[in-house]
Write a structure and sequence with these properties.
By secondary structure, the protein is of the alpha/beta class. Helices cover 24% and strands 25% of the residues. The protein has an eight-stranded mixed sheet, covered by helices on one side. Strand 14 and strand 15 form a beta hairpin. Helix 7 runs parallel beside helix 8. The radius of gyration is 18 Å and the shape is globular. It starts with a strand and ends in an 11-residue tail after the last strand. The mean pLDDT is 94. Bound molecules: zinc ion (2 copies). The site of one zinc ion has 7 residues, from helix 2.
């Protein structure tokens, strides 16, 4: 399984980190799932060296703007790009409600009856397995300031290769449903350490809490995302996490790809295929 990070930042994007969003591909790289849709998703996919047309399914974890705000833009860009295949979008009920509202707002432009491809919105139940682009998937509620679901997916080729991704959350017992014995556990570290009270209040993790969850759930590798700009000190986040978690810690950058199989520990390639050229 491959996970490419289209963004690794929190709600406020920075030059280095777009809103957190993941592209998941199977081992044969012929099935692709997009997780969340903040900011400028189509361009982020291109910048990561991938093609947006290859997306087989979209999963939206929750309706915060940094996770859903770019969805109408993605839908329009895919039409302009010539898509004709149906686009399945999966989310829990409170989120599909917002997706329908967003599409209603743009119904003068996104005219679904004559759109170049069907937009299929699927409401999924937490805890109930479903198939998403060939991946056996289960969504589980996390504990955030709005209804939010993380996911646990099995590789189509090697079901024992498991990815768990929480999206935004503070500590809750149900995270074990996402994390337990995962080959790769990706979670958020909006804060690093010492902001536990604030993190709890706004429904986020510190790197320390994320790493403790990884350790308690015996995950094989840990990826930390949703780093907020003033706290995005990778070295400090790694050092703090390493005190709690003894496995491999990955702090991906935008464009990084993690690869893992049942037998192969997670490896990471860093960097955008098409970085922004800053003018001096
Ligand atoms: Zn967020
Ligand atoms: Zn959020």
């Amino acid at each position: 399984m491959y996970v490419t990070f289209l963004g690794t930042g929190a709600a406020l994007p920075s030059l280095d980190r777009a809103n957190t969003s993941l592209l998941i591909e199977n081992e044969h790289k012929n099935k692709t799932i997009l997780i969340d849709c903040g900011g400028d998703p189509y361009r982020n996919i291109l910048r990561a060296g991938k093609t947006a047309e290859s997306i087989d399914a979209v999963f939206i974890t929750h309706a915060h703007i940094d996770h859903i705000g770019g969805l109408p833009s993605l839908i329009e860009s895919l039409r302009l790009g010539g898509r004709t295949d149906a686009l399945p979008i999966y989310a829990i009920a409170p989120v599909t409600e917002i997706i329908h509202k967003l599409l209603d707002v743009y119904s003068f432009e996104i005219i679904r009856e004559t759109w170049s491809y069907p937009i299929d919105i699927h409401t999924i139940q937490p805890g109930e397995p479903f198939q998403m682009a060939g991946f056996a998937t289960t969504a589980h509620l996390t504990l955030h300031s709005v209804p939010c679901a993380g996911i646990r997916l099995n590789s189509p080729e090697e079901p024992a290769a498991i990815l768990g991704y929480t999206s935004d959350t503070k500590y809750t017992n149900s995270l074990k449903d996402i994390a337990a014995n995962a080959s790769c556990f990706i979670t958020e570290a909006t804060y690093i350490q010492g902001n536990e009270e604030m993190a709890d209040k706004v429904g986020h993790f510190t790197a320390q809490q994320a790493a403790k969850t990884a350790q308690d759930n015996h995950v094989k590798s840990l990826g930390l995302v949703h780093l907020s700009a003033p706290h995005a000190d990778e070295a400090l986040a790694r050092a703090v996490a390493a005190k709690e978690y003894s496995g491999k810690i990955i702090i991906p950058r935008d464009g990084s790809t993690i690869h893992f199989t049942e037998s192969l520990d997670a490896t990471v390639e860093n960097g955008l295929a098409h970085p922004v050229a800053l003018q001096k």
